[in-house]
Amino acid sequence: MLSYIITMLLVGLFAGLLGALLGLGGGIVVTPVLTLIFNVDIKHAVGASIIAVLATSSGSAIAYLKDDMLNLRLAMFLEIFTTLGAFVGAMLSLVLDSKVLFLLYGGLLTFQAFNMYQKIRAGKENLAAVEEDALAAKLNLGGRYYDKSSGELVTYQLTKVPQGSLVMFCAGILSALLGIGAGAFKVLAMDTVMKMPLKASSATSNFMMGVTATASAVFYIFSGHINPVLATPIAIGVIFGSLLGSKMMPYIPVSLLRLIFIVVLLVSGLQMFLRGF
Predict the structure, then answer these.
(1) Which of 8, 14, 64, 245 has the fewest C-beta atoms under 10 angstroms from its C-beta?
(2) What phi, psi does 270 have (nearest 5°)?
(3) What digits encode the pLDDT tens for the residues 74-114?
């Protein structure tokens, strides 16, 4: 029993570290590890993963808010759409087959890996070329932060806010279905659609996932898919890992973050596709 608890603590620590660095909530590690290595039923793995997402958000949000990397105004606006999506996804999770969940997960991860590769090929982001749309201007959704890796003050504006909001609704659905916080889709909405810098997107995504996961967790608790013996040590490890990751992220170059992102997404996506088929 002790070795089991230590193993789950280490899984949580690694998940929290990656989750805080990449804005993915930690579920991107927890669900594949539990299902593929420890043969946990995917719905119980998703339940534990939802708790891990809550822990990652709690552990990293304070540090990102202190560093001004977290865009709180944007997060509160987009949470309207992700929370609605989470309720829809949680209800769908009760009727969908497990194989469908595996394939959805694999498709999501592979798509985001390709998106990150395109970003690396494009080179350094040209934030000055982003044309702020009317909704972003009216709600004052832009922001700025100090990038400790480059020593520069990064100021950014946002575009295509309605399209990004639609992606956020889909992210909420996937969050509840897959137990990953759907950070890949949240980062996609902000980084790719709304042209928000990756570091600010990751920090804001981490905060948002805690709110979205809370909506999903209610359904998983009442459906009996959260096992306290499994979820508790993972959550404790995730909190410590996310605190460490949030301290490291401001100092890591964006290009390196994207490379880590691609490797994690491709490995996990391939494994989930194989399990689904």
Answers:
(1) 14
(2) -65, -45
(3) 888 988 888 888 788 878 877 777 677 778 777 877 877 77
CA distance 5 to 84: 35
Q: Which domain holds residue 20?
A: 2-276
Total length of the chain: 277
Tokens standing for 225? 């898919």
* Alpha-carbon radius of gyration of the chain: 17
Using one digit for the tens of pLDDT, what is the confidence trace for 197-248? 878 888 888 788 777 677 667 777 777 778 788 888 888 888 888 888 878 8
Instruction: Reduce the secondary structure of the chain to three states and give it as a string.
Output: CHHHHHHHHHHHHHHHHHHHHHCCCCHHHHHHHHHHCCCCCHHHHHHHHHHHHHHHHHHHHHHHHHCCCCCHHHHHHHHHHHHHHHHHHHHHHCCCCHHHHHHHHHHHHHHHHHHHHHHHHHCCCCHHHCCCCHHHHHHCCCEEEEECCCCEEEEECCCCHHHHHHHHHHHHHHHHHHCCCCHHHHHHHHHHHCCCCHHHHHHHHHHHHHHHHHHHHHHHHHCCCCCHHHHHHHHHHHHHHHHHHHHHHHHCCHHHHHHHHHHHHHHHHHHHHHHHC
The pTM score is 0.70
Place of tokens 């089991």: 4
Q: List, in sequence order, every beta strand (DSSP E) within the chain.
A: 143-147, 152-156
Q: What is the DSSP string of 199-210?
A: HHHHHHHHHHHH
Helix, coil or strand: residue 156: strand
Quote the number of domains for the chain: 1
